[in-house]
Design brief:
- A 4-stranded antiparallel sheet has the order 2-3-1-4.
- The protein folds into 2 domains: about 200 residues, no CATH class; about 70 residues, Alpha-Beta Plaits (2-Layer Sandwich), CATH 3.30.70.
- About 70% of the residues lie in helices and about 10% in strands.
- By secondary structure, it is an alpha+beta fold.
């Protein structure tokens, strides 16, 4: 019984395609394209939403205790979603100044936003155009029916012609009705990811940072240059195997990267051995 129902249903749809003409095929093609696009977007959002911002921040915090910013960068590098990419840029504070990091985060946001919304305008256009194409097909069909049958046409023939003409409207509305809730669902996914990005930005608003540096020459000049710079809280010389200067700073106030501060005032290159960030 079910097989018979499906067979009859398939036969009816095939008949509608044949009688609906070129416009019915056009509606079917754009409808299938819209459906494929929708499925691709949903799969993309499922892929990038497998890991939440708190999970990524937790991995960053744990890695920061083990080996600082570099270890944190390695720990989230495999996620490859918008949240991890934005947090990755936020971890580079100190290697870059505040403005450079904010600009990098904004560029990442623009690229990821473009990826998330790609083809959504096309999908919306398909939803809006499909009923109109169906209506055009119906109007043309009815016009052609009256033209062929003329004033003396019989009622049965006219009804058959109108039935055929209405097929394209039915198809256009069907495409729009199927795709509209899917489109709304995808828009909801976009908004959810936007909320996650805003949360990630707030969670990476580092309040305090420390670095261990290695300077081969001009150690006194380096310490003095750092002490006089905006955002630097404390600087001291240390005696460790790979580093000889320790510096604490407020990332939100860092107008220049640590490396640039030393290079400009002392004409000396530094090597950042360790960098740790805290809320």
């Amino acid at each position: 019984m079910i097989i018979e129902f499906l067979t009859n249903g398939f036969g009816t749809i095939l008949e509608m395609f044949q009688k609906g003409g070129a416009i019915s095929y056009l509606i079917a093609i754009i409808g299938i394209y819209g459906l494929i696009t929708s499925i691709e977007k949903i799969l993309y959002f499922r892929k990038i939403s497998k890991v939440s911002p708190p999970q990524i921040i937790g991995a960053v915090t744990e890695a920061m205790e083990r080996g600082g910013s570099l270890e944190a960068l390695k720990s989230i590098g495999h996620y490859q979603n918008p949240i991890s990419k934005i947090i990755t840029e936020a971890l580079k504070i100190g290697y870059r100044n505040k403005t450079e990091v904010e600009d990098s985060m904004e560029r990442v946001f623009i690229v990821e936003m473009s990826t998330m919304t790609k083809n959504l305008n096309t999908l919306k256009t398909i939803i809006e155009v499909s009923p109109l194409l169906g209506l055009i097909g119906t109007v043309i069909g009815i016009w052609n029916t009256f033209k062929v049958m003329g004033i003396q046409g019989n009622i049965t023939g006219m009804a058959e012609g109108i039935y055929i003409a209405l097929i394209t409207t039915i198809m256009g509305l069907t495409v729009a009705i199927i795709l509209m809730p899917i489109y709304s669902y995808i828009i909801g996914l976009v908004e959810k990811e936007m909320d996650k990005i805003e949360l990630a930005k707030k969670m990476t608003n580092w309040g305090y940072a420390t670095m261990k540096l290695r300077v081969d020459t001009n150690i006194e000049c380096t310490i003095e240059a750092l002490q006089d710079s905006e955002g630097i809280v404390n600087v001291k010389q240390i005696n460790e195997l790979y580093s000889n200067i320790w510096v604490a700073f407020k990332p939100s106030m860092l107008e220049k990267s640590i490396g640039n501060i030393v290079l400009e005032k002392c004409n000396t290159d530094i090597e950042i051995i360790e960098s740790k960030l805290k809320q």
